[in-house]
Amino acid sequence: MTQQQIRVRPEVYLTGLLRQNIQDPNPNRQAGINWIYPDYPLIYELSKNINNFPRISVTRMTNSTVSDLGIDTTDSIDTISLLINIWCIKKQLLPVRNGTFNLVYQDGTLIYPIPEVPISVVKRVVSAGHTFKQDSDFILVDYDEDGLYDSIMWIGNTPAHGATFLLEVEQRLSNEDLAEYLAQEVHVYLRENWRQELPKKFLWNYRKASQNTLEDLSGKVIRTELRIDLEGVNIGD
Length: 237
What we know:
The chain is an alpha+beta fold. The chain has two domains: 3-93 and 174-233, 2-Layer Sandwich (Alpha-Beta Plaits); 94-172, no CATH class. It is built from four helices and twelve strands; from the N terminus they run H-H-E-H-E-E-E-E-E-E-E-E-E-H-E-E. The chain has helices at residues 3-7, 10-21, 43-46, 175-197; strands spanning 36-37, 55-68, 76-89, 94-104, 111-113, 121-127, 130-131, 138-141, 151-154, 164-173, 203-216, 221-233. The chain has a five-stranded mixed sheet with strand order 1-2-3-12-11. The longest helix has 23 residues, at 175-197.
């Protein structure tokens, strides 16, 4: 990457990074259609088709000079603020995370907490070639009472004592939960990777300045607004 690439529209460069590294949760979007853009979308038009969502926009808010690098150079240390909006349409439920776990059944133990993944859908429970059925063999329960399914409870047929059973689950999110999840995915990627993705000579610092979740189109669209600040040499040019 050259200095000229950094100096021309950082929002465009970051859009490219996000397109390559943030997974689109919408399996129904037309193949080859981008969902991350360096501009502010026409949300009213997009809202006519649910599969236009989610949508991420990266736009420039402000840039300012922090200080000059010296008397004999025109280069300066600049700060640029970018606004990353994650747009989600209401009632669109999308898969965001899958988990597969091997658990061991013990006689007398009916509830089995699932590691890591809050459960939205159980895709499969199998032991010794037998597939167990939800609502007749097992049910989902909120074991820690935090409002999310996190365990299964056996209520009918069970695996044999000491047998391993395979559990496949999927987490699905919608509305502000989906928007905030994607905002966190963007933030974590940038926080963990900006040093490798952008040359230290030109970009010195990444910072999450703020995050807010709002409603647009009379509540039809949920938007999580992530503001980030970048500091480096001539990055506002």
